[in-house]
Write a structure and sequence with these properties.
Layout: H1 8-19, E1 42-50, E2 53-63, E3 66-70, H2 71-77, E4 88-90, E5 93-97, E6 105-109, E7 114-118, E8 127-129, E9 145-159, E10 164-178, E11 181-189, E12 203-214, E13 219-227, E14 238-246, E15 262-266, E16 270-276, E17 279-286, E18 289-293, E19 301-311, E20 316-325, E21 335-345, E22 355-369, E23 372-381, E24 384-395, E25 399-410, E26 414-426, E27 430-439, E28 455-467, E29 471-482, E30 488-499, E31 503-514, E32 518-528, E33 533-542, E34 545-554, E35 562-571, E36 574-585, E37 588-596, E38 600-614, E39 617-621, E40 627-632, E41 640-643, E42 646-650, E43 656-662, E44 668-672, E45 687-690, E46 697-701, E47 708-715, E48 727-730, E49 736-738, E50 744-750, E51 753-760, E52 763-770, E53 781-786
Parallel strand pairs: 1-7, 8-18, 40-46, 47-53
Antiparallel strand pairs: 1-2, 2-3, 3-5, 4-5, 6-7, 9-10, 9-38, 10-11, 11-12, 12-13, 13-14, 14-21, 15-18, 16-17, 16-19, 19-20, 21-22, 22-23, 23-24, 24-25, 25-26, 26-27, 27-28, 28-29, 29-30, 30-31, 31-32, 32-33, 33-34, 34-35, 35-36, 36-37, 37-38, 38-39, 40-43, 41-42, 41-44, 44-45, 47-50, 48-49, ...
Length: 792
């Protein structure tokens, strides 16, 4: 495509010049400083090749042996003329000299009206291969629904003295969802069938929460019972009240951490292979010039990236760069925050509806740069004020450092302080972490009892080393010093290795020094028998006693719903055997476990699942922890429906099925199995994409045209078959069907009695069609039907 239009006279002049060309004088940067006179301008429409890549067809101006090109050409070629270059005007448009670009060389072929341009790779503007954030899928309409999750457990035990106990416990959760959000409430019932009690109420409400997500802004609102976000130095505290904050999980594929940027230079259009720790991660195509890759595969830690740049001639350039990434850092300019207000929950699960002091708290984090994230947090109650600042930063040597300082002011305890310092480094072969935290005696946090003293100093660290052939080795220590108590220090070591490609062995040892002395050493050997079955053996010696056991298990799956486990060995100087059976079904799970030792025998039986009420229909299913869909194929029972090619359930007698465990805020492809439909069934689609909200329902309709299909043969007045290309339609139905060879047309949507019309060249005739009794696996062949009043 020619980018500058020429008049007829200019095209003729260009053609004459091409037939009688003159050589281009040598060009230099000095020649481009001042444009020559315009008396000898020549117009050159040329097909351009830039460093071996196609660059389109452009109109050049040749003046005094210097080539000039329009500004749009430089922009498309990704090169920039020198700011000191003098442009020339031609026909109201400005042109810049090509010689003002570093490394410029030109080779003109007048026979083919083409030019090969060569620029220095550094002259090109950098190309950035960025991670493209997938477009946020539009949410599907929420179908109002209700669900109930349940977990029932029966336990019985008998001791050697004849004392026996038995009990039934029930845990339930009720949820309501609509377009405004999700309201859930959980309850527990204990000691239902037993007179025994630990003093806590038999029936307790646990948590009641209303949750509303705002995917467009990555925010979530919770009203009711929830927990605070602790930040670097706080505590998870249950409370009743209001919480609002960011939730990056509402956007699929959202990356909150900074990603490494890998840079390189290509002298010609090339293919770039990215290897991370010697594993090929991605392949990209880049044009000539510098490039930067920041669509780096999401990883955490440090390592080595190798870029193999291969141009069109097969020449390779290898660029090796180290990288560092960590999910504790935020991308530059990104904010992460949470604000809470309410009353601290006390005795959750043991005391009914007990709330303490009112409070307000907030946490705010911001990515200041790719290597620094700062944080501020505050807590306030009627008796306590707490304020702290912290930062997470990447240090030289690919080390991540965390630091925080906190001040507290308690009405009774007084003023206190706390500090935190952490260092960590993680690479493909080895890593270490070290964290130290201390507090003054008077320091207090939200939700902490006034009489409870903080730890004076606690230090913990570990070091790991891994090799593919020799396995991994880990060393660790922890030391805790409490006010008024002796310091306790623990040393530990572990070694693990893969044997025979699938089996593994692990050896662990630990020793406590100080207030609590003791040591232990353990050995575990695991052998996978197949994809579902595993055998293991373990032995541990501590405090002069040795425990050992051998075990085997089979995990239940969707295809094989029954699983089991068995264990035999010696624990606490007594022999012990255990066994269990597990069933994983579409409508819930069942489990049964038994154990026996010389002093005690125990039995436990349980079941869990869920129920859903949606669109006036009731369904039994597994626990409802994610989104779910109500799929309907009207009039077609026992049709397989699932996600993609996985059939998860089948339609009931009304052609309706519930699909559980869908991913919220992501596209889920709900698909029916076409093999389960009769040949005559006609659907617009067998797969529909939906985007459900969290723990909410979506209605999925697979419309099936009513009626049956039949192959109908039509003849005209002269006895000849209806011509191919004629159309057939059923009165009352908008669908049209074409006649094929021998006057036959496959027509769907037929009822037991029909009025059918044939259309041909503006003429029309009608006739009656009566269907025979239905047969699921056969398509009826009917006719011939006479089309009166219509001839070829």
């Amino acid at each position: 495509m020619v980018r500058a239009r020429l008049g007829r006279a200019e095209w003729v002049a260009a053609l004459l010049w091409a037939l009688h060309p003159q050589p281009l004088p040598a060009q230099s940067a000095a020649a481009s400083a001042a444009p020559p006179a315009a008396s000898a301008d020549r117009i050159l429409p040329l097909e351009v090749t830039i460093n071996g890549a196609k660059g389109g067809t452009w109109v050049f101006i040749e003046r005094a042996g210097i080539l000039y090109a329009p500004r749009d050409a430089f922009t498309e070629w990704r090169v920039e003329p020198s700011p000191e270059a003098a442009a020339v005007d031609f026909r109201g448009e400005r042109y810049w000299p090509l010689s003002s670009v570093p490394g410029f060389k030109a080779r003109v072929d007048f026979a083919t009206q083409s030019v090969q341009l060569l620029f220095s790779p550094e002259a090109f503007t950098a190309l950035r291969l960025s991670r493209g954030l997938a477009a946020r899928p539009a949410l599907s309409p929420v179908l109002p629904s209700a669900f109930v999750n349940y977990d029932v457990n029966y336990a019985a035990s008998t001791t050697r003295g004849g004392t026996s106990t038995h009990d039934v416990g029930v845990l339930t959760e009720v949820g309501l969802s609509n377009k405004w959000g999700v309201l859930t409430s959980s309850h527990v019932a204990r000691h239902v069938s037993s007179a025994q009690s630990d003093g806590s109420p038999r029936f307790l409400r646990l948590e009641t929460t209303f949750t509303r997500d705002y995917p467009d802004t990555n925010r979530t609102l919770r009203v009711g019972d929830t927990s605070t976000r602790p930040g670097l130095w706080g505590r998870n505290v249950y409370f009743g009240g209001v919480q609002m904050g960011t939730n990056f999980g509402l956007t699929p594929g959202f990356v909150s951490q900074p990603l490494p940027v890998l840079r390189g230079l290509s002298a010609a259009p090339s293919t770039v292979e990215l290897y991370v720790n010697d594993v090929l991660r991605q392949v990209s195509n880049v044009p000539t010039g510098p490039f930067a890759i920041d669509n780096f595969p999401l990883m955490t830690g440090s390592g080595e990236a190798r870029l193999v740049v291969r141009d069109l001639l097969g020449r390779e350039t290898v660029i090796v760069q180290s990288f560092f990434a960590n999910n504790q850092l935020l991308a530059r300019g990104l904010d992460d925050w949470s604000a809470e207000a309410g009353a601290v929950r006390q005795g959750l699960g043991t005391v009914a509806d007990k709330y303490g002091d009112g409070f307000a708290s907030g946490t705010w984090r911001r990515g200041v740069s790719e290597r620094l994230t700062v944080e501020g947090r505050g807590e306030a109650t009627r008796r306590l004020r707490t304020l702290g600042l912290g930062a997470t930063t990447a240090l030289p040597g690919r080390v991540l450092a965390t630091v925080a300082a906190v001040l507290s002011d308690h009405r009774s305890a007084g003023r206190g302080s706390s500090w935190l310092l952490g260092l960590e480094r993680d690479s493909a072969r080895q890593g270490f972490s070290l964290q130290a935290q201390g507090a003054s005696r008077d320091f207090r946090l939200l939700g902490q009892e006034e009489e409870f003293l903080p730890n004076r100093l606690q230090v913990a660290g570990n070091w790991t080393y891994f090799t593919p052939d020799q396995g991994s080795l880990g060393l660790g220590f922890a030391s805790i010093s409490r006010y008024g108590e002796e310091r306790v220090t623990t040393l530990s070591a572990n070694y693990s290795r893969v044997l025979w490609q699938r089996s593994s062995v692990n050896i662990a040892a630990s020793r406590a020094i100080g207030g609590a002395a003791g040591s232990s050493v353990g050995f575990t050997f695991v052998v996978p028998l197949d994809d579902r079955r595993t055998a293991s053996a373990s032995a541990t010696r501590r405090s002069g006693t040795t425990d050992f056991y051998a075990a085997a298990n089979e995990t239940p799956t969707r295809d094989s719903a029954l699983g089991w486990r068995a264990l035999a060995g010696r624990q606490q100087e007594q022999s012990r055997v255990e066994g269990g059976l597990y069933y994983l079904g579409e409508r819930g799970t069942l489990s049964g476990e038994a154990s026996a030792s010389p002093d005690r025998r125990a039995l436990r039986v349980g079941g869990s699942g869920g129920t859903v009420l949606a669109d006036g229909r009731f369904f039994a299913t597994r626990r409802v922890d994610q989104a779910y869909a109500l799929a309907e194929v009207p009039g077609y029972p026992d049709v397989g429906i699932g996600i993609g090619s996985n059939v998860l359930t089948r339609t009931n007698q009304d052609g309706v099925a519930l699909i559980p465990n869908l991913w919220p805020y992501q596209s889920n492809s709900v698909r029916i199995d076409p093999k389960d439909l009769p040949v005559s069934a006609e659907l617009d689609a067998i797969e529909i994409n939906i985007v459900p909200s969290w723990r909410s329902a979506v209605k999925v309709d697979f419309p099936v045209r009513s009626g049956r299909g039949a192959l109908i043969r039509v003849v005209l007045d002269d006895g000849e078959a209806a011509p191919a290309g004629a159309t057939v339609e059923v009165e009352g139905d908008k669908a049209q069907f074409y006649v094929a060879r021998r006057g036959e047309a496959f027509v769907t949507g037929l009822q037991p009695r029909n009025r059918v019309a044939l259309n041909w060249k503006g003429n029309r005739c009608a006739f009656d069609v009566t269907l025979p009794p239905p047969n699921r696996d056969e398509v009826p062949r009917l006719g011939p039907f006479a089309c009166k009043g219509l001839a070829r």
